[in-house]
Design brief:
By secondary structure, the chain is of the alpha+beta class. It has helices spanning 3-7, 15-19, 29-44, 80-86, 118-131, 150-158, 168-174, and strands spanning 8-12, 49-55, 62-74, 98-109, 141-147, 162-163, 185-191.
């Protein structure tokens, strides 16, 4: 049975939830700091909204947390090979160069709950959330600037995300970085149309 659906409650990560919860630790200091303080400022400045799953039987325990914001895929900036793949089922694609997306700005799972498949459940939830008929805006893609470390990249690849730029060198060129520069993140994308019943619709 799905742990998040059966054992947890989904809620906006409000200042009250943070103040009344045990310290959230997902194993990444930057993410821990963000979810403990910065996410409130992001929400107040309309830069992103943070949500969490908390244990229903112990609301002081945050199992996982995420931050999302509006974004877009600007296809005129992409390599031709990736552009063709992303536009394969978009009607009248020659008439636009930007398509609606949601950005996963932050995502973390409590270290006490790792190894239980919760990260995969969380990603399934996010995907379903944005193709739900009650979603009030169009959203074709999910994008993420994934930490450029094996654990993070493999997580998104296992959840069917693809690199927007095929190689790190291509991505560095896009950002006007030196070939010797270090890429701290890799831009990845998931096409939500793959989850719909009528992908050509």
């Amino acid at each position: 049975m799905n742990f998040l659906a059966s054992k947890c409650t989904f809620t906006f990560l409000s200042p009250e939830i943070i103040a009344n919860s045990k310290q959230f630790d997902c194993g990444h200091p930057d993410l821990n700091d963000f979810f403990s303080t910065d996410c409130i400022h992001y929400n107040n400045k309309l830069l992103g909204k943070s949500y969490s799953f908390i244990l229903t039987e112990d609301p002081t325990t945050i199992v996982c947390a995420l931050t999302v914001s509006n974004d877009s895929i600007k296809t005129n900036l992409l390599p031709n090979s990736r552009k063709k793949k992303l536009l394969k089922s978009i009607p009248r694609s020659k008439h636009a160069s930007s398509y609606p997306a949601v950005l996963i700005g932050r995502l973390g799972v409590n270290i006490n709950f790792k190894g239980q498949g919760i990260g995969h459940e969380l990603m399934d939830f996010i995907k379903a959330w944005f193709i739900d008929p009650n979603n009030k805006t169009g959203c074709r893609y999910i994008v993420v600037d994934a930490y450029n470390v094996p654990e993070s990249l493999h997580y998104y690849e296992r959840n069917d995300f693809q690199f927007i730029f095929s190689t790190p060198a291509q991505e560095k060129k896009h950002y006007n970085l030196s070939s010797k520069a270090t890429l701290n993140t890799r831009l990845m994308v998931f096409d939500l149309i793959d989850l719909t019943a009528n992908p050509q619709g």
